[in-house]
Amino acid sequence: MSSCHDDYKKKLKEAGYKLTPQRIAIINVISENKGEHLSTEEIYDIVKQRNPEMGLATVYRTLQMLDELEVVSSLNLEDGCTRYELYCDDGAHNHHHLICTKCGAVIEVEGDLLDELEDKIEKDYNFEILDHKLKFYGICSKCKNLV
């Protein structure tokens, strides 16, 4: 697990939660599938292969709790599915996402491309920006080549 996520144990403990095998299994699945933006059901399917006794309700409750504690970050793509990735509190903004409206692919855009705009907003509106989430919708290269 990357260094920016090493404190998930501390976050759970500080909030009064135990680090159970189920929680570890869910965090591991998300960590091992970095960049995949897995839905609850996809996480459950992978966890179930390793831990057949785990139920879907446990995965839902655990993801909700991990999201509230900022161990994972939820991503709503307006497709009826919430997707998850590990949260990184390294002082940087979240990355941006490109979402293909044909196949549903989610592509991460690394780097913050909005620094100049943020500076202008902070100056013009006397507003301190702490973070932002940006999603672009369009057609990915694979789907464009199918046309």
From TrEMBL:
Name by which UniProt lists this protein: Fur family ferric uptake transcriptional regulator
Family matches, as PANTHER family: FERRIC UPTAKE REGULATION PROTEIN (PTHR33202:SF7), ZINC UPTAKE REGULATION PROTEIN (PTHR33202)
Gene3D superfamilies, per database record: 3.30.1490.190, Winged helix-like DNA-binding domain superfamily/Winged helix DNA-binding domain
Keywords, ordered alphabetically: DNA-binding, Repressor, Transcription, Transcription regulation, Zinc
Superkingdom in the source lineage: Bacteria
Family named by the database record: Belongs to the Fur family.
Pfam family, one: FUR
InterPro entries from the UniProt entry: FUR, Fur_C, WH-like_DNA-bd_sf, WH_DNA-bd_sf
Lineage, opening ranks: Bacteria, Bacillati, Bacillota, Clostridia, Eubacteriales
